[in-house]
Amino acid sequence: MKSHQELLNQINIWHCAREHDKIKNAILELPETSRSADLLSLLARAQINADEFTAALEVLEGMAGQSRNDALYCVRRALALWQLNREDEALPWFRKAQELGLGDMDELPGTYFPKSAARWVERAEVWAPRRAEAKAFEAQRRAARNKQPTDAGFTVRDLEGLWDDCEYSLSQYTGGTPAADEFKAVEVELGYRLPAVYKALIQQRNGGMLARNRYPNPLCRDWTTAAFSAESIYGIDRSKPCSLCGSSGTRFWVEEWGYPDIGLVLGDTISAGHQMIFLDYSDCGREGEPCVVYVNQESNYEISYVADNLAEFIRGLEPAGDD
Question: Which of 30, 128, 282, 295 could cysteine-pair with 91, CB 3.0–4.6 Å?
Answer without folding.
Answer: 128
